[in-house]
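WARN  no MSA supplied for this record, continuing single-sequence
INFO  ligand: pyridoxal-5'-phosphate
INFO  echoing inputs
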Amino acid sequence: MKLNPAIQEIRESATLAINQRVSALRQSGRRIWHFGFGQSPFPVHPKMQDALRQNAFRKEYLPTLGLPELREAICSFHREHFQYEFVPDRVIIGPGSKELIFQALYLLEGPLILPAPCWVSYAPQGEICGKPVVPVVAGKTDGYKIRAKQLRAAGRELPAGQKIMILNSPNNPTGAVYSADELQDLAQVCRELNIIVISDEIYSHVCFNGAPAKGIGLFYPEGTIVTGGLSKAFSAGGYRLGFLAAPAEMTGFIEAFVTLASETFSCVSTPVQYSAVAAFSDDSDVMEYIDQCTSLHHAAGEYLYERFTEMSLGCVRPEGGFYLFPDFVPFKEPLGRLGIAGSPDLCRYLLEHVDVAMLPGTDFCHRAEELTCRVTSVDYDGGAVHKASVAHPKLDRAFIEANCHNLKAGCDALKEFLESL
Ligand SMILES: Cc1ncc(COP(=O)(O)O)c(C=O)c1O
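INFO  complex generated
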């Protein structure tokens, strides 16, 4: 048997692989503090579950674009919360935003610029599509956000013509959120250099400054494709529902998308699309719930940030999502004596000897010597913690320590290890 050469160099997604490794270790009786997998821990809101149940009898295929009332709901939701002017005929529903990003990359010509550190799947997806992948690495002192001048310099190095960039804010793996001014500056460069942006806004409602995160599509509507879905703010990753919204200016794009989708996934599960209507209907109960979940993500992120800084790890304070990106540079010398030269060695060592699971920065287009790790802040029982939080107005350090035991225990284990160096 011969495999397609486009796939031969690609490994299994690092996040899924670590989750399986942690499950195997846990099954063998090891107690692991899991800072590796980015799944929202909260239960799906009962109204979404009810809608799923009530529509379980629907067995017919839906149009490839998706359920019309869902696309309408997504447009109203994004007008209300993000000031986006999506149009239902240019919104497509897919089996997760990951698949939609992949199909968009497949359809669009041009090299792929990746502001890095960036999510694990973008570079492999670009490579599978045969694209040159060009990481533009943001500095820690810039809060891991690329500057307009960096993007301009990288774009000018590339051949003239269309380019693609995937921008992700709030960001996995760093927790960074781009401000309106920063987005405006990037939009200007994208316009100058003919860069189409895929704006991955899957965490846009998990933003810690009290309002949903702004997207670059506000400042560059004609050149921005927006993706999002149920997986993060609505805690329903396994429902596998995402959306993609394209601007009218990209003539023929959505039509080509429908052709590709109709020859591949056909449409997303019909009952799940009805459940998504309940999510995007701006129902006050659902909105209150996702805001409370965001407050808990904020409290957990803040807790880890404080603990990491107290242990002298380098760390940028997270502004959204459920991730942090600490570095172990202050411990370079003693780690070197243990034979740890880069982030993959470090993560292997931490899993084997400290019972802490994290992903190495190298999985996120970050150099091994930077000794960075991607940490997730979700290793707790979301249902119980949510319930406890409702009666507890202050989601402070004491609350996290009393309710998110694994976060505390994982930090304690890490602290003890660092103190032993
Ligand atoms: C940055 C980012 N984009 C996209 C996705 C995929 O989301 P979905 O479940 O909609 O495919 C994830 C999931 O981890 C993510 O972290």
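The mean pLDDT is 96.
INFO  checksum written, moving to next record
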